[in-house]
Amino acid sequence: MITRNPQTCSILLAPIVLLLLGVVPYAQQKEHRAIRARVAVDDTKAQELFRSALLDVQLRNWEPARRRMQEAVLVWTQMSELGKAARALTQLGDSYLREPNYPACLYFYKQVLQIRQLPRAMRAGALISIARVYAELSNTELAIDYFNKGLEQARIAGDRSVQLLALSGLADVHYRKGDNKRALAEISRAREVTSQQDRTEANLLQTSARLHQEEGQLEPAKGAFEKALAIYRTTGDVEAQVKVLCFIADLHLAASRKEEALARAMEAWELTSGQSALAVSNADKTRVRSLAWRAWLARARAERATGKTKSAASSFQWAFSQAEARLYLAEIATENGAIAFREETQAIYREYADLLMEQAAVSRAYGIAERAKAQSIRRLTQARRNRLSTGQGSRAEPFHSGRQLVARLRTQLLYDQPAIERAIREKELRDAEHALEELRIRAEVDSSRDRLVVSTPATAESVQAAMSRQKAAVLEFLMGETRSFVWLITADGISFEILPNRKEIEEAVGKYLTMLAKAPNPIRLETETAKTRVHSELLFSKLFGKLGGQIIPGQKLIIVPDGLLHYLPFETLIRQHRYLVADHEISYAPSASMLGLWQESPNQHDNLKKMEILAFGDPSFDPRSNKTNRKKTVGKIGDLAQAMRSSRRDLLPSIPRTRDEVEYVASLFPADRRRVYLGKESTEEAVKRESLRDYKRIHFATHSLIDEASPARSAVMFTLDSDEQEDGVLEVGEISELDIDCDLVVLSACQTGRGKLVSGEGIVGISRSFLGAGARGVAVSLWDVSDVSTSRFMKTLYQHLAEGAGNAAALRAAKLRMIAAGGALEHPHYWAPFVLIGKP
Fold it and tell me: What is 460-594's CATH number, 3.40.50, 3.10.450, 3.30.420, 3.30.70?
């Protein structure tokens, strides 16, 4: 921690005060001049240390830079030059951010906050700098928290320019989060602060323009972009100019002004080329790549629109290569950052694949489409396999004490207490959760090299060879803004069908899913079932077209969905008056490239020694009573989330049949090959204590929390007991840190297959975390499930698994049994929600 030296301050200030009073004798004046000389020497020394530190940064000599900077700051602090110390720390932090070296820049920004008696405006600036880092790392919650803290400090200080920085940052983060209403509110607040024409105003204009663009207001968007561009040109911000020029080019294309679009795209490309020629350091080259992919994409789009298809194909290839390099070199720092970057660059892959299909390059188009999907989860899975193959195993959690603090505070909030104490505890919990998240990010950045692995994407030829061995077929979808595609790859070759655009497909799928998710009215069962079948048959035609006639009955189908299709149980689609599940085993994968990683266990020779099943069920949700109130229900998902993390845990209803379900499932396997945790023993601590690599299957029968806006807060629920080490909420981040090596995880709970739907990565949520932790298959539910029908379904599923059936085969058999039962259970609402993601 940086502190002032009171003794030094008094030595410096005393002679100055006496001199001002006019009572300083000549000897003391001489001493004062000597002190001033020493101060000048010290300041010169600090400046030299600071310049050396900046040079070390350019040479990437991080430790010497940090050491020299600390020495300079210490000198300035002892001189009471707090402003110089703060500005130097901030400048060094900015230098590290340009590299980018996120841990280092965060370190120096936070060192600014450690300076005592720091002016509030400088403290606000440091908080805003930290917020910018978390925004770059795509951690919106932390970014918003720090922007708000900076805004509060700037308001107290009365510094309007710093307030504007915070409000501009908040507007941008809320926009990227998808909260357009809040983004507009922050822009309005910023307008009340100042109308100064500077870079911050340009940033606000850019965010405002993008909001107009999303709403289809092309002319207001263009006007705001042009104003922002003029300011960026005045300030010399080339990076911002390139981005805005690319946005303007897109607006011209949307308005069918093709030549204007090409002119603006070429202007952006020329600016980027100029920056590329000047780039010397790795940091400069990384920044240029961030511009290059945008400029090449804008150029490719405009060239294609103006009929220059050959040049467009070349430009798409350049955009593709620059984006891939940027992802590998910089955006790999955190998984959230990688996912956000993949989502941002999706247009390159999708539009390039579309152009290749137009040129009849079917196999190449498929390869580009496949590269668009699930790269982040594939890298994580491959990195984990690499560690296991070298005997490194899973990495230990580096912030266990932080998790324990959060668990303890959550547990304390479960009990009645005075309102003032509760408010204090709630603030402590928020602060602890944010501190824990910062520790998690630091650990993730520190281990980011683990994700720098070679993971070769699948090609049409490699998938065809795999399908020949497995006697299966891959159906892979790619949704586009003007048209979509589906490829069918079998041992015999590759076929395709051109489909309607994304909007048309997702409207049809959305209506169908609404029908499936609603339990049928018993009185109108026959009518509603018939209506569902009609929509199902129409949807099959829309999604398969002529390919429907090429799918051979009895063939295993592996579906690689896209967009809203991730939520569609294809088993329910009807071909020739029969559900697809009647003729096919069906499983799902985020990409065909993942299939090879889900084959046999790296330690398959030990598989025979493994336990058959580990099962958890019937958790107790009320720590104050031995009895569960089965009459209470939870209405909305928000109520469930609040019940999990607040004092209303008793609002969570028990799930009456989960105990019977787990006991029956376990009874199918030998007593010495199973382990069961029920009731109060079904705890989060028990999950973490178990050696999960020793089991073939893991079964959870409980509640789940699905937070589609913030998937990191999705969780599986367990008993809460008096042990404050765990809170009974196994969140996505904790799931990812588990060490699993099993064929199947079954999540017998509501909506466990849902999460945040991210273009290019699929569903980010609970199922993805289990796959990342080492499960080769996860059975999840797509909507709220009935306790009665689910218990029946699970029993049938495990009967077939115990008899040796594969995951997809057992799941299919359970569904066919329910259809054959007739009555209400024949309706797909009851048998269709559970699907298999991963190894068939």
Answer: 3.30.420
